[in-house]
Design a protein that fits this description.
Nuclear Transport Factor 2, Chain: A, globular, alpha+beta, 4 helices
């Protein structure tokens, strides 16, 4: 295996762990994926300026909006250039509202637009993740330094300029984790 492929495999592993940590909002599993001073532009429309802020957000959502199923992710693309890399994908994050909502008018406004399964809201998203081979402590380990997630258009909405829909474009979900 080439070093380039080893880098891609490690980046994909960290990415899978990050999304797996969302199921049940596992703060410690999430912490392993990020540099201490990373920046997140969250799906809820708000920025989070460090790993400590992200941990506080996870604890908040443990009381209000908990992802209880494995997310579906597809069209995962990884580009590596030396000690920097980025990953893009699309996906669905199933969440269950356990309190008064997400605490975010942005997320609460778009959530009703998406498919519902009982009390589970399946939020479609797109993401861009920036990785550096630097853990923030001088070690050459791939970590996430920036994460940007935003709502993805409804699967039946025609794409301007093309007229096709997400439902018409084929996608194969990538397995994040399993219950085994």
């Amino acid at each position: 295996m080439s070093d380039g492929q080893a880098d891609i495999d490690e980046i994909r592993r960290v990415h899978r762990q990050w999304w797996a940590s969302n199921r049940g909002l596992d703060v410690e599993k999430m912490r392993e994926c990020f540099a201490p001073d990373y920046l997140m532009w969250n799906l809820n429309g708000h920025p989070y300026y460090s790993l400590d802020e992200k941990a506080k957000l996870f604890r908040y959502y443990q009381q209000h909006l908990v992802p209880t199923e494995w997310p579906e992710v597809w069209d995962v693309r990884v580009i590596v250039d030396g000690g920097m890399a980025y990953l893009t994908s699309e996906g669905i994050l199933p969440v269950v509202a356990t309190g008064e909502g997400s605490g975010s008018s942005t997320l609460d406004a778009v959530a009703p637009l998406y498919e519902r399964r009982g009390d589970t809201i399946r939020v479609r998203f797109r993401e861009t993740v920036v990785f550096r081979r630097d853990d923030g402590h001088g070690n050459t380990v791939w970590k996430i330094w920036h994460f940007h997630c935003s709502p993805l258009a409804h699967e039946s909405e025609p794409r301007p300029g093309f007229g096709d829909t997400a439902a018409e474009r084929s996608h194969t979900p990538v397995e994040i984790m399993s219950d085994d």
